[in-house]
Amino acid sequence: MHLQNDLLLKAAKGEITKRTPIWLMRQAGRILPEYRAVREKARDFKTLVKTPELATEVTVQPVDILGVDAAIIFSDILVIPEAMGLNYEMEEKRGPVFPDRIKSIDDLKKIHVSNADELSYVLDAIRLTKRELNGRVPLIGFAGAPWTIFSYMIEGKGSKTFSEAKKMLYTQPAFSHQLLEMITQSTINYLKGQISAGADIIQIFDSWAGILSPDQYQEFSLKYISKICDVINEVPKIVFAKGAFFAREPFNSLNCEVIGLDWNMDIKESRKLMPNKVLQGNLDPCALYGSYDDIKNEARKMLDAFGSTKHIANLGHGLYPDIEADKVKCFIDTVKEYGESLRR
Ligand code: 1CP
Question: Which residues carry the site feature described as Transition state stabilizer (predicted)?
Fold first, then answer.
């Protein structure tokens, strides 16, 4: 279908656009009262994710309310372990918990490489969202990076250190690779399914990249992200690896168009290290707690540093639930206005 607003796709391919496109990680979520209303109707997070009509509604909300240049399908990275056979529960306040985590090689018997059909509810939500968007903006599909998914499957919950997951890398590297390979294949099947269902571009979230050493990152994460990127060539790809400042040089030769930056990564330095890539990011989400004037200044400063091409505006990580929607809107509007003025 013809897209009325294809700024994101054009920018991802490095083409010149009339202004810098913008979308935000976690743009669908608790910052919007409209989201909270649907969430209450669904009662719990998983029902929301598994009911295509409701998932579609919250996916489209930020396009209507915030005016972002893309929608991202409402789901979670943890649907992959569940499809592989490891059920998760989303506990209020605490976050995701796996009652039955992977503890040893014996537990591999409990899981399998999942195919896209096992996540048909996400694919249905993508098809419905595409219909609902009716070509207004592109739809972003996504998955977690194998290392980040591995971390949750081993740890069984969120963690500051993920020391159980890291312990596996040090004590059972062969088993770790076996599990990472299963996750990688499941993720490839899933992303191919999302693209067939209508995703226009995909993002891989490596949220726990920053807890590995550079050598470990190469061996246990980048290797598998690379495998995924090499077999997905239907749409542009964004790789966002939180905290992986040490991997920017290798990222430059990854088979993807866009690299996401967090706010710790200096913009100019990142340009030097990754001349082949379009860059996405990278305002600290906490900057949106500031005054309207401060937010406008921060947005302009960010755009000045990135320049007018090869940039997709975003935050350096997801929005926090207590950030005011009007402040988010101020950031988005400033990026749109100032981005356009930069080209004149
Ligand atoms: O109802 C709620 O508000 C629960 C909060 C919530 C939401 C809105 C969770 C629980 N997941 C989501 C949706 C979600 N998760 C999206 C939706 C699309 C959008 O961005 O608008 C996406 C892309 C994710 C991806 C995700 N889930 C990541 C990667 C991105 C990141 O933040 O680093 C991770 C690590 C998760 C796991 C997860 N899901 C939810 C929580 C609270 C967590 C983190 C748990 C932890 O602290 O380890």
Answer: 76
CA nearest neighbour of 331 among 318, 316, 310, 314: 314
Active-site position among 6, 19, 39, 88: 39
In a domain, 113, yes or no: yes
Indicate whether 2 belongs to any domain.
Answer: no
pLDDT (0 to 100) of residue 92? 85
Active-site residue flag, 26:
yes
CATH number at residue 308: 3.20.20.210
ipTM field: 0.92
Q: How many domains does the chain have?
A: 1
Q: Which atom of ligand 1 is nearest to 26's Cα?
A: 20
CA–CA–CA angle 43, 315, 296 (5° rounding):
115
For residue 36 and ligand 1, the question of a CB distance below 6 A is answered with no
Other Cβ atoms closer than 10 A to 286: 13
CA dist 188 to 192, 204, 205, 227, 285, Å? 6, 11, 14, 9, 30
Domain assignment present for 1? no
Query: What is the radius of gyration, based on Cα positions, of the chain?
Result: 19
The pLDDT tens digits for 291-318 are 999 999 999 999 999 999 999 999 999 9
Residues 10, 36: Cα–Cα separation, whole Å = 33
Atom of ligand 1 nearest to the CA of 242: 33
Domain that holds residue 277: 7-342
With a CB cutoff of 8 Å and minimum separation 6, the contacts of 17 are: 7, 10, 11, 309
Dist CA 265 CA 314 (whole Å): 14
Alpha-carbon gap, residue 245 to 223, rounded angstroms: 17
pLDDT digits (tens, 9 = 90+) for 45-86: 999 999 999 999 999 999 999 999 999 999 999 999 999 999
